[in-house]
Amino acid sequence: DAGVTQSPTHLIKTRGQQVTLRCSPKSGHDTVSWYQQALGQGPQFIFQYYEEEERQRGNFPDRFSGHQFPNYSSELNVNALLLGDSALYLCASSLGGFSYEQYFGPGTRLTVT
Amino acid sequence: AQKITQTQPGMFVQEKEAVTLDCTYDTSDQSYGLFWYKQPSSGEMIFLIYQGSYDEQNATEGRYSLNFQKARKSANLVISASQLGDSAMYFCAMREGPLNAGNNRKLIWGLGTSLAVNP
């Protein structure tokens, strides 16, 4: 039973560039949530996708956007990268509304220089 | 506003001893869930234990137990018989509101506690 997978594991980008991070949920899960975790901080909720729609959004600017595909996998896009976007980006999957557990992937560590 | 507070930035415990990691929360919801996650240096968040606000019994999962004191709004994690592999960051998180279809509410996180287990 495959768990949550994320790609790439590490990424280095330059300020102003755009980045796409990918997440495949745990088998049987249909909901994907994205979190940003800065160094020494707890994760901050970015947004959640269910049935290919953004259902909830945290306090993040429009530079952060996402998508969910029919197979429930998801992408996180960040435009016009800032130094402050450097963080670990975590993807979590769950069974929409019926499971309290969110399973997390290993994360993508993004460094913006 | 919902908030999670973890007041212990770092904790040390001797191998095989028990340790308690503190977590207090603030919410105006009557229905909520409390979680503890472990994050090793590899970065992956590992689910440890869950307590629903209406659960009368304290949750237990193997060596992990949650000391839930609703009136005090605290949800402390107790790890018994600490092992070297328990060294990691530990995060307390809260999900506000009931579970509904297609509405798996977001988690609000504390800043974490770094636990070091000494041999």
Structure described in brief:
Chain A has strands at about 5, 10-15, 20-25, 30-35, 45-50, 55, 65-70, 75-80, 85-95, 105, 110. By secondary structure, chain A is an all-beta fold. In chain A, strands 2, 4, 5, 6, 9, 10 and 11 form a seven-stranded mixed beta sheet that branches. In chain A, strands 1-3-8-7 form a four-stranded antiparallel beta sheet, with no helix packed on it.
- Label the overall shape of chain A: globular
Work out the radius of gyration of chain B.
14 Å
Fraction in beta strands of chain A: over 45%
Task: Please tell me what the overall shape of chain B is.
Answer: globular
Low-confidence runs of at least 5 consecutive residues of chain A: none
- Distance from first to last alpha carbon of chain A: 37 Å
* Average pLDDT, all residues of chain A: 92
Which secondary-structure class do the elements of chain B indicate?
mainly beta
Query: What oligomeric state is this?
Result: heterodimer
Major sheet description of chain A: 7 strands, mixed
Total helix count of chain B? 0
**What is the ordering of alpha helices and beta strands of chain A?**
EEEEEEEEEEE
Strand content range of chain B: over 45%
Largest interface: A-B, 33 and 29 residues
Major sheet details of chain B = 6 strands, mixed
